[in-house]
Amino acid sequence: MLALITGGSGAVGSMCAYEAARLNYDIVLGYNSDEKGALSVKSMLSDFRAKIVPVRADIQTPEGRNALAAAAAELGGADVLVNNAGAAKISAFLDTKESDTQQLLALNLAAHIDLTRLIIPQMLRKRAGAVVNISSVWGVQGASCEVLYSSAKAGVIGFTKALAKELAADGITVNCVAPGCIRSKMLDGLSERELCEKIPLGRLGDGLEVARAVFFLARHGYITGQTLSVDGGMAI
Predict the structure, then answer these.
(1) 21: which of 48, 69, 183, 215 fits an S-S bond (Cβ 3.0–4.6 Å)?
(2) What stretch of H or E contains 30?
(3) How far apart are CA 213 and CA 144, in angstroms?
(4) Whole-number pLDDT of residue 18
(5) pLDDT tens digits for range 181-198
(6) Catalytic: 222?
(7) CATH fold label, 2-230
(8) Number of C-alpha atoms within 13 angstroms, CB side, residue 55?
(9) Domain positions in the chain
(10) Is-above-0.85 flag for pTM?
(11) Is 153 helix (H, G, I), strand (E, B) or coil?
(12) In whole angstroms, what is the distance from residue 96 CA to residue 49 CA?
């Protein structure tokens, strides 16, 4: 069994890799610029039997997406695809530019759509597989000063629902996890106290809590087209 995970050097991606290795998946670990982080994840997983293949790839480019798909094909084809890579920008909408629109939608939505298009044939040959897309609580309910990010993450949810309908007959599930405030670099510069005041459970989440939701969905063959919020109650 093979899991392809993008954004593999970050807080969520690294824990998705941990959970995959714990469940005896081999892993293609996609990362863009943080080679040190990716190698650290590989080292962290050295006690598991899993084969870990870090692949440096900018998923916004055809070359990067093709590199990930080729690495997965070389290991027998992906059984699970975790579309996790992403980035946010906090800014008033009128302060954003067209280039911001292109950049944030490309990374947080279009790149995942295009990578999934390359990976699905690997699953079709097995007539089985699972795609788990990482959206956000802001994709569910929107966020002031994160309009572009919220738009992209809402698009991920729409992509999930539509693709789930299309691939159900082929034995492939497509689901979505919508994290809330997860302890990560994305929260750098924000007040933890103020964030926690907005979370019913009163604390930040961690990457492993997201990862467990990801692989719950990936391994559940009768759930598809769903969005599972892992947000401490923010979207209630």
Answers:
(1) 48
(2) strand 26-31
(3) 27
(4) 97
(5) 888 777 776 778 888 888
(6) no
(7) Rossmann fold (3.40.50)
(8) 25
(9) 2-230
(10) yes
(11) helix
(12) 46
